[in-house]
Design brief:
alpha+beta, 244 residues, 43% strand, disordered C terminus
Length: 244
């Protein structure tokens, strides 16, 4: 009985230590990317970037009002002439959403299902994935230490509210995100985050991301300039098709 009591105490101590260690790592990472207070000061943001893959260029503009609206504009320059210079987009305005993407050949603006809104909200979130993760309904677990390409990482498993799961690798020295790997896809989906830069508002972001779709470079970030809510509603309303 005495042995069992000691064993239970040891297990309780180890579990508590592990939880505390996880919280400490997350807290130190959030501090490394600018801290909760600086991220909370961002009420609107516009991020412009471009990516290239095998001679195809994608020009992206992400606009967001914190906790309510997100818009992603996409302009394509590719070998398929019919897609060039068209403006495609994904819009989320609170509980409503629409998409107009190159995958649709009928040039139709579709309303999003509720599940799609959750997926795009996770996909287009401009904040670091650890910022306010509990408020956003995410579950984050520390898997352990792992070596990859001769570097040591804290490996975290992140489950998003939409159901998406990723492995996130924090550099054990810098505590910055070096790699994010999607675990729920059939093909390799590994993103590398490079060239971190501290913006004047105090937040830290990666200016270069390399993934399966090529290399994306952020060209500009505009923070706290006014954004009208009309920006987050589809134009040509007579063209979109309700699917719900």
């Amino acid at each position: 009985m005495r042995f069992m009591a000691i064993l239970i105490c040891c297990l309780f101590y180890l579990t508590g230590t592990s939880a505390q260690s996880t919280d400490d790592i997350i807290r130190k990472h959030i501090e490394a990317v600018g801290g909760d207070d600086n991220w909370a000061k961002i009420k609107t943001i516009v991020i412009k970037s471009q990516s290239e893959d095998n001679g195809n260029f994608l020009y992206l503009k992400k606009s967001a009002i914190r906790d309510s609206c997100i818009r992603s504009d996409i302009r394509v320059q590719s070998k398929i002439a019919g897609r060039n210079d068209k403006l495609y987009y994904i819009l989320i305005n609170r509980k409503e959403g629409w998409k107009y993407l190159p995958e649709d050949r009928n040039n139709t603006i579709y309303t999003l299902y509720a599940s799609e809104i959750e997926e795009y909200r996770d996909e287009l979130d401009y904040e670091d994935p650890f910022i306010r993760y509990q408020d956003k309904g995410r579950d984050i677990q520390l898997v352990g230490l792992e070596y990859y390409h001769h570097k040591e990482y804290y490996k975290f498993m992140i489950k998003y509210k939409s159901g998406k799961k990723v492995n996130c690798y924090l550099n054990s020295t810098t505590l910055m995100i070096d790699l994010i790997e999607a675990t729920d896809t059939q093909t390799e989906n590994l993103q590398r985050f490079l060239d971190y830069e501290t913006l004047s508002e105090g937040i830290v972001i990666a200016k270069r991301i390399i993934g399966p779709g090529g290399e994306k470079t952020i060209s500009s970030v505009t923070i706290n300039h006014p954004l009208e809510e009309s920006v987050f509603k589809p134009s040509e309303r007579n063209r979109y098709t309700l699917r719900n």
